[in-house]
Design a protein that fits this description.
The protein has 223 residues and is of the alpha/beta class. It has helices at 28-34, 58-63, 74-80, 119-136, 146-153, 187-205, and strands at 14-16, 22-24, 49-53, 101-105, 140-144, 161-167, 170-175. The protein has a single domain, classed as Uracil-DNA glycosylase-like domain (Uracil-DNA Glycosylase, subunit E). It has a 5-stranded mixed sheet with strand order 4-3-5-7-6. A two-stranded antiparallel sheet has the order 1-2. Helix 3 crosses helix 6 (187-205) and helix 4 (119-136) packs across helix 5 (146-153). The protein is globular.
């Protein structure tokens, strides 16, 4: 068996994501160090949809990219649901702003699993989220996870889809949690739920508004 030269540096392990791209795998130490770490929002004024995850997973916290773990279905569901013309990689998350889309989280701290969060963290996150929405004025808030929504917003009977609730003027829409741990939803079912929201967005935009990327004034990334 050939031996590596003594001064050679081992390549970081990699795996394929759901789009077939090679992704660097964070080391165990990097993942441990990421526990409790927050990552910046992808956000700008007057977005069509602000997607709201529950909190960053450790892959996301380690890389600074939303929905970064290869098994997460957010990026393929977003594409198959008609929001993007191709599947974006987490490294391309800033491109979402050009489509009038953004990402934030209900709770800031990174954890291995969302169930590590307390109910208090989720309810406190609602107040922070409301301030954020009042500042940036998205048209829709799409919460990714019906269980987290029920706990955080006190809506025990909430189901996936459009809600009567508004937060800071934004219409609330619940989408299923795209985590690979959510076995209740296949990728096809997830994509169908994303498509239902996209159809509502298209009706709001109307024929005069285009879904192609556009330069947005005031676009920025906030912690």
């Amino acid at each position: 068996m050939p031996r590596r030269p003594p001064n050679a540096v081992a390549a970081a392990p990699a795996c394929q994501d759901r789009g077939g791209s090679l992704v660097r795998v964070p080391t165990r130490d990097e993942l441990l160090a990421a526990h409790g770490r927050a990552i910046p929002d992808v956000i700008a004024d007057d977005l069509a949809v602000l997607f709201c995850g529950i909190n960053p997973g450790l892959w996301s916290a380690a890389t600074g990219r939303h929905f970064a773990r290869p098994g997460n279905r957010f990026w393929p569901a977003l594409h198959r649901g008609g929001f993007t013309p191709r599947q974006l990689h987490p490294d391309e998350q800033e491109k979402l702003l050009g489509y009038g889309l953004g990402i934030t989280n209900l709770a800031a701290r990174g954890t291995a699993r969302a169930d590590e969060l307390t109910a208090t963290e989720l309810t406190e996150g609602v107040a922070i989220l409301a301030d954020k929405i009042a500042r940036y004025r998205p048209r829709w808030l799409a919460v990714l996870g019906v269980g987290a929504y029920r706990t955080a917003f006190g809506r025990r009977d909430a189901t996936v889809g459009a809600q009567d609730d508004r937060i800071g003027g934004a219409q609330v829409w619940i989408l299923p949690n795209p985590s690979g741990l959510n076995a209740h939803y296949t990728l096809d079912r997830l994509a169908a739920e994303f498509a239902a929201l996209r159809e509502a967005v298209d009706r709001w935009r109307g024929p005069a508004r285009q879904r192609s990327p556009r330069r947005r004034s005031g676009a920025r990334r906030r912690p």
